[in-house]
Amino acid sequence: xxxxxxxxxxxxxxxxxxxxxxxxxxxxxxxxxxxxxxxxxxxxxxxxxxxxxxxxxxxxxxxxxxxxxxxxxxxxxxxxxxxxxxxxxxxxxxxxxxxxxxxxxxxxxxxxxxxxxxxxxxxxxxxxxxxxxxxxxxxxxxxxxxxxxxxxxxxxxxxxxxxxxxxxxxxxxxxxxxxxxxxxxxxxxxxxxxxxxxxxxxxxxxxxxxxxxxxxxxxxxxxxxxxxxxxxxxxxxxxxxxxxxxxxxxxxxxxxxxxxxxxxxxxxxxxxxxxxxxxxxxxxxxxxxxxxxxxxxxxxxxxxxxxxxxxxxxxxxxxxxxxxxxxxxx
Amino acid sequence: xxxxxxxxxxxxxxxxxxxxxxxxxxxxxxxxxxxxxxxxxxxxxxxxxxxxxxxxxxxxxxxxxxxxxxxxxxxxxxxxxxxxxxxxxxxxxxxxxxxxxxxxxxxxxxxxxxxxxxxxxxxxxxxxxxxxxxxxxxxxxxxxxxxxxxxxxxxxxxxxxxxxxxxxxxxxxxxxxxxxxxxxxxxxxxxxxxxxxxxxxxxxxxxxxxxxxxxxxxxxxxxxxxxxxxxxxxxxxxxxxxxxxxxxxxxxxxxxxxxxxxxxxxxxxxxxxxxxxxxxxxxxxxxxxxxxxxxxxxxxxxxxxxxxxxxxxxxxxxxxxxxxxxxxxxxxxxxxxxxxxxxxxxxxxxxxxxxxxxxxxxxxxxxxxxxxxxxxxxxxxxxxxxxxxxxxxxxxxxxxxxxxxxxxxxxxxxxxxxxxxxxxxxxxxxxxxxxxxxxxxxxxxxxxxxxxxxxxxxxxxxxxxxxxxxxxxxxxxxxxxxxxxxxxxxxxxxxxxxxxxxxxxxxxxxxxxxxxxxxxxxxxxxxxxxxxxxxxxxxxxxxxxxxxxxxxxxxxxxxxxxxxxxxxxxxxxxxxxxxxxxxxxxxxxxxxxxxxxxxxxxxxxxxxxxxxxxxxxxxxxxxxxxxxxxxxxxxxxxxxxxxxxxxxxxxxxxxxxxxxxxxxxxxxxxxxxxxxxxxxxxxxxxxxxxxxxxxxxxxxxxxxxxxxxxxxxxxxxxxxxxxxxxxxxxxxxxxxxxxxxxxxxxxxxxxxxxxxxxxxxxxxxxxxxxxxxxxxxxxxxxxxxxxxxxxxxxxxxxxxxxxxxxxxxxxxxxxxxxxxxxxxxxxxxxxxxxxxxxxxxxxxxxxxxxxxxxxxxxxxxxxxxxxxxxxxxxxxxxxxxxxxxxxxxxxxxxxxxxxxxxxxxxxxxxxxxxxxxxxxxxxxxxxxxxxxxxxxxxxxxxxxxxxxxxxxxxxxxxxxxxxxxxxxxxxxxxxxxxxxxxxxxxxxxxxxxxxxxxxxxxxxxxxxxxxxxxxxxxxxxxxxxxxxxxxxxxxxxxxxxxxxxxxxxxxxxxxxxxxxxxxxxxxxxxxxxxxxxxxxxxxxxxxxxxxxxxxxxxxxxxxxxxxxxxxxxxxxxxxxxxxxxxxxxxxxxxxxxxxxxxxxxxxxxxxxxxxxxxxxxxxxxxxxxxxxxxxxxxxxxxxxxxx
Lengths: 330, 1187
Known about the structure:
Chain A is an alpha/beta fold and 330 residues long. Chain A is built from 13 helices and twelve strands. Chain B is α/β, with parallel strands linked by helices.
């Protein structure tokens, strides 16, 4: 019997398959089904401070907009006691999910203000989350803001949050950093226990018939595995931090590759959304079979086995462009 | 006993007690009583219990008649039951009221009393509704203040249980129902102490039950009905003493003593006024004031009007009374006098005969009318009345408060007379409806009234427009209770929240000498003076006003408040009025902000906090130079070319000076000219659309969707361009029917509301800059004048010849002149573009019956009216009867058209030889199925009339008056879903079933929009609405399907935003069908809660989701062996959530009860799927014989 156990953010997990942040986590019943299907931990959908603010302002706008201007209709919508606006509903959901899941639950947060980040992080911790994933991504459009300033702000933020909470902290990043290794190292020093590579976003597309810009998000496929695979393989063993690989995990081979690159866990949503709630069982069984067939004893045995350091194939990881060289030349 | 002080309005004060003391509440929305039902519904939805610990069951019925029936049933089975209503609503309850009283059933109907519609509808307060029920057998208890309304609601409840006589508890609509004042809230212990549980048990025991069966509601014959009717006398005899006993018990519990008739004034008064309701407050305060000046005057305030206790009334009058003046807030045309007058005369006569009068000599008694439809009733008028009573022969059957120059009933008074004390601060705020002024003022008075020892009062006046509406807030603050149910005419503080108002309203006439004037000004302290209109400068200098300014819009923009300047202006008021120390005021404002907005999220609280802080930093005191520098006068209310009536009467109303119009100025039968909105240049849009001829494809879509008919297109001969203004835009026309012509798309800059729906509708995008369309928004002020000139020129260009135009395409149909323009509907209104389309296609032959609701308000509310005429003077003739009877009302119009057409044809045949057989034949057999045929028939009728003039036959004279009926008339029955699905459904069903040729247009907003978004049977499942605060559990009624089941009714369900061509097709088919037709039109509404400029997109999503399938059911197709049902939209292609969660009405539930929202949404989705399958199956049925 092969050993699938792994350790991520100091959490002992029964296997390396973690359900990544998705709408599935909104429903405690679905979370339970995922846990039963074998996922070892679950990252909650993100609490977006920007959305909290937007929802709050929108609700206010539409409840206030046409008030008190016509004698027969001083308002147009009923007054209700309380709105679940703000982090409370999210926090409440973590609590409910925790009650039924039976697996570690990782909160996920995307803030816009320092106050918001810290305040919401504390609330997520208080709700019982086993760890927190900071979803560090925003579209920088300010032409005056330098990359240095931005990175410093991120580091400061991680330091601030680290001071305020006790639970393990992971940072989810986009691939768009000029000097990613250096930045991850700074994150580790700032107190991050792990990094999650990489975030996927809504990207605008153009509708050529309507000449409209349309935001869209497509589900990942196995091809997208290679970007995080490279970075984890490059950095494994060089920075003291846990790695989670979160894009392109669709088949057993993908998960195995993630482990071999050096990831502690592999996260997946697209595959589950595509193949159904029972897919983790199937995927884990295939991993196990592969390991048995290839005589691996444990996940830990393979973790980092094909990282840059371990594989000793620097060029394969570092090459940026295609260069025709003789295979035997060194 | 607990003592809670609150600032609330009359509706809430009453609903509070009603909800605490009842088990079943049956409601129906009607202004101004709707908020009572809304409160009750919301409290029950929140799980608030009555004093017995159970949550009252609140049910919305389909009409007030239905509510009364439900109440009757609930009462008969032993429930504690109540309702809230007003005006026509009370009238609809009347038949049941006789039953409820006849069966001696305890109940209280709470009535926010309101005018009954007569020459016009009015939503405002008087006693005409209550007085019309005085013979029903209900007791009538009238309150005169917010506190009294709260207290009497309880006294009535206690008394009805004991007396078994049902009660109408009434208080003036708006003046009491909507005024906010400081009251002592009655605690549960007091309520318990007033209600005797034993009486409730007895009521229950009388309830129908199979365990103890009885029969009620029998039919009786002449032998016993009369005697049986007399059996109730002892109950009515005892009722007054019972009420008094509960008033006494209430006094013991609360310290507030009331009597059936309360006398106030000089103990030896000689002149006594008698009055019911809140006017009594004014008379009482004035009498006290005059008494201090030595005048022997007093007032009897009638509390219990029915049963009328002669004994108590007479005993309330001082023995010294020499002359009595009764005041009725109602009119009973043709009577010997109004109700209170007649009762007072009867009472005194009877008491005199029985020798029970307190006075030695018989007093003189006169009566009159005051305060109809919330007409002001002031201390000055009261003084005028007391002065009149001094005369040897005081005027009888008088009126006070108006100038009656026709039958000379009015009493003169000195309007300068005032009893205002120095300790009370009087403030007036002039705001724009959308800027939040009223909300801020409601907040302010709550702060003063609830957080300090001071008293406060707030009353709010709104104009009749739904877009760009003006509001005036009347606020009083002071150390003593404020008993002044009338407007402020001399203010210590005047605030103008919109600079442009200075050009429109003479607001400083209300400012006292030395008053403070706060102005929201885009001009800074150095520039503001020179930009003020001359009369404003004059007033400031003459009255030595203390001027403060702030650029509130800038602060609002900076702090994320958008257009809402409420918090900013509120802060400025507190900062300079001195009503509270500044620091304390800021603290209290912030506290109030957290209380009001906290539940909407911290971001909302923070932006308001920022607004408070920045307001103080941007507030400036201005020392005006002591000279007039401006030459700018106020703008006239209507344009120079307006007819005399529009200038003199409607213009006066627009200037907010309507109170000054004498009786003779007004039409005696409620008839007004159409086409008057065009004279009122409202200039409410900050931005207006601008046309780009180089991009425009001349599709007509922007013209079609414009809710206010401010975008027009014309095709014309190039010669018409000769005198065009320089900036007038034109391009080559792309219309096959009109070669070598030019095309212009023109915007009316001063009428546009800036809703942007047109820009959203424009399908064109600049290839090099896709954000640029063929029509784009631009700031209005810089182009106002130029585009105004262009608009006038555009109107002077002749319209295309309708007879040459095929109107089966949008671009062609939109060349037709709309005969409905510039209404006061909301910016982006989803209803009006349908109404406009109907007038474009058929307006010159339309007769419209319009149900009460939004469409009757923007269609028929004074001062100006949007239905207009074409060049020939033809246009829609419009009328509004009631809410419930609109289909029948329209049916009556059809009956006239048909009957008179038939009679005219008969006369035509009889007179054929004299007229000319050929012409008679042509008229008789005319085909008017197409526009050309109608025009040809008009020409024949014109000739007919000419020939009839020369005939000396009485029948010819008769035919002359009927000749126009020989031309096709298009009868339209228009109303909202509240009418069609609920209150008017029975009538609608009957009219549709009649096979008569009527066209019914249902403007379906899926809620009662006009009364503020209450749920109707058109409200979709899972949406939140008032009376469905937890989300509606039932699906929308399928009105179309019900109508289709007859088989001979043309039915179409349309949504202009999803398919304008299907809409056009449906309108043309419906009108052409010689039988009943029903168009159900999806009408986006502000009550849905989204940006109205996106309404087309929302309509489209509603269709795509399957919530609103498009179809046409044409019975003519069945006659051809085809399936009459044609589905015009595809199977649902997006989940309902994709449509619904873009709208606050659905989203709210997600934010308040996510679990329930998801459950209801799932149910809604299932329903949609099932319904679509059913439609599809129906549409696929084979109708031909071959099957």
